[in-house]
Automatic annotation (TrEMBL), chains A, B:
Residues 33-52 bind DNA. This is TetR/AcrR family transcriptional regulator. It comes from Humibacter ginsenosidimutans. Residues 10-70 form the HTH tetR-type domain. InterPro entries: DNA-bd_HTH_TetR-type_CS, Homeodomain-like_sf, HTH-type_TetR-like_transc_reg, HTH_TetR.
C-alpha cells in the first residue's frame, strides 16, 4: 500500500477545517457536533479522527489558522507611501481580516464563552492573546518611533504597555459589533486615538 | 384555597434565581439544564415553570438582577469627601460588583458567547449595554464638569461619546481577567486614563 503523502494529509486536514468552519457559521459553534463536521466534510469518521481527537482540537486548529494567517499579514503594517500605519488602523484591519476569514464576529465571541469551561480552548486563548498583543505592541512601537520621533526604547516600552488595553478594546469592539445592532466599530476605535499621544519628553 | 401572596411569589422567584446562579457557577452556565436548576432549588418542576418558561428566561432574569442591583448602587458615585469618583474607579467598582454578585467573571463571558445564537439573551444584551453605558456616561460627565471644570453640556456630550469605548474596555477586561492567568485588571484600566483628559477649551 502506498504511504499517504504529507501533501495529501495536509489537504485532508484543510478540508476538515474548512468543513468545520462552514458548519460553525451555519449551525452555530456550540451546536455543531463532530457528526455535523464529518457530514459537512464528506469524509469518513475514521478520516476525521485520524486528524483530530475532538471538536475542541478542531476549534483550536481553526482559530490558530485564522489567526496565524491574519497576524502574519499584519506584521509591521505600512501605508502605500512606506510610513507606518496608525495602530488603530491595524486593529481595524485585524477585525476586517476576521470578518473575511472567519465569516464575521460570531465565532470568536462564542469561543471566548466556551473557553471559560473548556481547558483546551482556554489554553488556546492563552497562546493567541500574547500573539495578538505582540503584533499590536510592534505596530505602536513602529508608529511612535518613526512617525512621532519617540526614541526606540521608549516606543517599544509604550507599545508593550498599551497592548493589553488595545487587545481589550479589540475584544470589546468585537463583542459589541456582534451583539448590538447598528454598532459603529470605526467610530468606537477612533475614540481611542488619545492613547497614542507620544509621551512628553 | 388562599391566594398565593405577591410576597410569597417574589420569595419563590428569588429562590429560583439563586439556585440558578449556584448551578451556573458550579456546573457551568452552558451545562446547567432546567432539571439541574430545579434540583438545586428544591422546588417542583411545576413551581419553576410557573415563573420561568425556559433557561434563557432564567438567565435573563439573573443577569438583570445582578446588573440592576449593581448599577443602581453606582449612579453618580462620589468619594467620601463628596467629590465625584474618577470614571475608571466606577469601572473598577462595576467589576468588583460583578465578582461579588455573580461570583466572578465567568458568567458574563459565557452569556455573551451564548447570546450570539440565542435571541432572548441577545435582546437582553441590547437592553443591558445601554444601561451600563448610561451609568458610565453620567459618571464621566459628572467628573469632567465638577472636577475638571468642563462646561456641563460639553461634559455630557463627552460622556456619551466615550461610553461605548469604556463599555468595550470593560468587556475586554472581563474577558481577559476570566481567561488569562495573572491578568492585572487594575493596571489594564489605569492605561485608559489619558482618555479623560479634559478637551482643550
Amino acid at each position: 500500500m502506498p504511504k499517504v503523502s504529507d501533501e495529501h494529509r495536509e489537504a485532508r486536514r484543510r478540508q476538515i477545517l474548512e468543513a468545520a468552519m462552514r458548519s460553525f457559521l451555519r449551525g452555530g459553534f456550540q451546536e455543531s457536533s463532530m457528526s455535523d463536521i464529518i457530514a459537512e466534510s464528506g469524509l469518513s469518521a475514521g478520516a476525521i479522527y485520524g486528524h483530530f481527537a475532538s471538536k475542541s482540537e478542531i476549534v483550536a486548529a481553526v482559530a490558530s489558522e485564522v489567526l496565524e494567517g491574519g497576524l502574519a499579514a499584519m506584521k509591521e503594517m505600512r501605508e502605500p507611501d512606506g510610513t507606518p500605519s496608525h495602530p488603530l488602523d491595524l486593529i481595524q484591519r485585524l477585525v476586517a481580516g476576521l470578518m473575511e476569514r472567519a465569516g464575521g464576529t460570531a465565532l470568536p465571541v462564542q469561543v471566548w464563552g466556551r473557553a471559560v469551561i473548556d481547558p483546551e480552548l482556554r489554553a488556546m486563548f492563552g497562546t493567541v492573546v500574547p500573539a495578538i498583543r505582540a503584533v499590536i505592541a510592534d505596530q505602536i512601537a513602529l508608529w511612535m518611533h518613526e512617525t512621532c520621533g519617540v526614541p526606540d526604547d521608549v516606543a517599544v516600552a509604550r507599545g508593550a504597555e498599551l497592548a493589553p488595553l488595545m487587545t481589550g478594546i479589540l475584544q470589546g469592539g468585537i463583542t459589541q459589533a456582534e451583539l448590538l445592532d447598528g454598532f459603529d466599530l470605526t467610530a468606537y476605535l477612533a475614540l481611542a486615538a488619545p492613547l497614542f499621544e507620544p509621551p512628553a519628553a
